[in-house]
Design goal:
CATH class: Mainly Alpha
Radius of gyration: 18 Å
CATH architecture: Up-down Bundle
Strand content: under 5%
Number of strands: 0
Number of domains: 1
Low-confidence stretches: none
Shape: elongated
Distance between the termini: 33 Å
Mean pLDDT: 86
């Protein structure tokens, strides 16, 4: 079976991440707050605290997307018995998390 191109992969049905948009908007607001704090020359630890909050929110967003991927995309590969695709997807996730 020939490998699918990236263009073909984009045509696959992917999970709905609409629920995560609320979190995305919150992160955007936090980062706009960081920008304002920098422009206002706020105290460094206050800026760092806001960055920490935004980083935590990003990590929570990442976990939600990852959970949905595991529960929907990878589960579909398991149901289909497509072990090669499953392994490829798992390795891709690990590689993204450890690469700098």
């Amino acid at each position: 079976m020939p490998k699918s191109s990236k263009k073909e992969a984009k045509r696959e049905i992917h999970p709905d991440h609409t629920p995560e948009l609320k979190r995305v908007r919150m992160i955007i607001g936090q980062m706009e707050g960081v920008e304002k704090m920098i422009k206002d020359r706020r105290y460094c630890p206050q800026i760092l605290q806001q960055i920490k909050a935004a980083t935590s929110a990003m990590n929570a967003l990442k976990m939600e997307v990852l959970k949905r991927h595991l529960n929907e995309c990878l589960a579909e590969s398991v149901r289909a018995g497509d072990n090669e695709k499953l392994l490829k997807q798992v390795l891709e996730i690990f590689q993204m998390q450890i690469s700098k």
